[in-house]
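STRUCTURE:
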């Protein structure tokens, strides 16, 4: 089977997108490169058993609880300010060196200015290494992860559409775009579920795209057959008693 993208990168972008879109209030901090995140729950199989890869348990990006932190420069140095989101809700207080500080006091601009001069300092580097050891990573924005995902899925749709041998390049492009639209809707409506460690995301998406394209082609075929029958009925003087058939053939799609 042709590989239209790097499956590992696609899976990682999908994982990051699921994490980010679940807590939209933190998007400004992601955009500023300030938010460190660590998933909590693990992916499980149908029997509730944790899924592992190379002996390592895999995190579930849909698990509702996530640990976060950002760095803040104080008089004593750089503090790690920690908090936990639950079902997309951010707490009112952040724990900084044992002190509970209102979350609203940490604006994006104040955090940026506080760490700006320490970005390349030894303490900053040591702290970020500690966070990585704890399983935290600098979280990209939902927008960036979505863009990377859709770029790969677009390439997949274009490659798979070419195998359908459409009569023209325009019809091939239409097929690819229609399938892409359906896949995007499935992703946004949580109808296309990805679980780490189960079916590889490339295989999952390839199967989904094929199904979408077969459905599109069958619909077009049925419409074409219906239009041919309507034309034959018109020639023979046997017109339908209602106008539903006409509406079906002239239906337009809006995105």
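SEQUENCE:
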């Amino acid at each position: 089977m042709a590989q239209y993208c790097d499956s590992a990168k696609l899976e990682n972008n999908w994982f990051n997108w699921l994490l980010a879109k679940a807590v939209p209030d933190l998007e400004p901090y992601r955009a500023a490169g300030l938010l460190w995140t660590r998933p909590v729950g693990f992916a499980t199989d149908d029997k509730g058993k944790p899924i592992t890869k190379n002996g390592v348990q895999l995190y579930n990006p849909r698990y509702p609880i996530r640990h976060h932190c950002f760095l803040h420069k104080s008089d004593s140095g750089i503090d790690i300010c920690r908090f936990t989101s639950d079902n997309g809700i951010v707490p009112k207080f952040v724990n900084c060196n044992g002190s509970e500080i209102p979350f609203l006091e940490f604006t994006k601009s104040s955090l940026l200015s506080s760490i700006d001069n320490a970005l390349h300092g030894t303490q900053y580097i040591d702290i970020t290494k500690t966070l990585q050891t704890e399983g935290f990573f600098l979280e990209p924005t939902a927008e960036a992860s979505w863009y990377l995902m859709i770029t790969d899925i677009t390439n997949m749709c274009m490659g798979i559409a070419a195998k359908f041998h459409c009569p023209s390049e325009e019809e091939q492009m239409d097929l690819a775009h229609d399938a892409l639209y359906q896949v995007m809707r499935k992703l946004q409506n949580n109808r296309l579920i990805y679980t780490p460690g189960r079916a590889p995301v490339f295989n999952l998406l390839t199967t989904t795209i094929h199904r979408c394209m077969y459905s599109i082609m069958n619909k077009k075929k049925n419409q074409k057959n219906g239009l041919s029958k309507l034309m034959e009925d018109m020639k023979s003087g046997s017109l339908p008693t209602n106008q539903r058939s006409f509406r079906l053939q002239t239906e337009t799609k809006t995105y």
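REMARK: The first helix runs from residue 7 to 22.
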